[in-house]
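Quick one before lunch.
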Amino acid sequence: MSDRVKEVVPDLIYAIRSTLKKHGVTFEEYGAAMQYLIRVQETGEVPLFVDAFFNATIVEIDNVTREGTQADIQGPYYLNSEAYQIISERLPHRPIDENAQDMVIRGQITDTDGNPLAGAELDIWHSTPDGLYSGVHDGIDAKYCRGRVITDAQGRYSVKSKLPVPYQIPNQGPTGELLEQHLGRHSWRPAHIHFWARADGRRDLINQAYFENGEWVGDDCCETDHLDLVVPELIENGARVMEVNFALDPALAIAAE
Ligand SMILES: [Fe+2]
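Model of the fe (ii) ion complex:
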């Protein structure tokens, strides 16, 4: 790791210094920037700030070496692995969401040659029908709208849930202030479903699926729309069907010590 630090950090510092010089940044502006970063830290927004501006770039780099399904950002709302109970039927939803539109999330996990991967694990998480995340936003038990499915002998999975909606990333703090007031951008994400797929001998895949014709698709505040993961509109028995397939690359070889 320290070799990588020696490689990357000097370039990073050089890029920042060059930008400061290019724009003739003053002491006053330098001080304001420092105060801003202190506010990001004090408001607990470091993960949000970093994810909003840089997570998509790391994903882009990661995807260069992927032959199968492309990765997408994880976002800050995964929680830890223990929060994901194995589900065979339906992701739990709050009683107040009973009348929200039904959704079926289903698909197949394969290797990059199309061979089914039986017993693969898929963690699924998405917003509530009012755009909140369990275990994150006030008083919503961590079990809602989250779960782990295991693929069958054909590599298939299917689980019911309730439809998520577009939501704004927190915009009352310094990150939202920078996006909206200073950069003239918005803080909306299109409705989406998060996935984390794992299988023996395969490379982990974190990605997201979006809804065809959904608001903000193609104009995500996190600049992360992979338009190949926009799922065509399909309704079955009143439920929106999200057919999402994953082709997992072979696990990366561990570099020799
Ligand atoms: Fe999300």
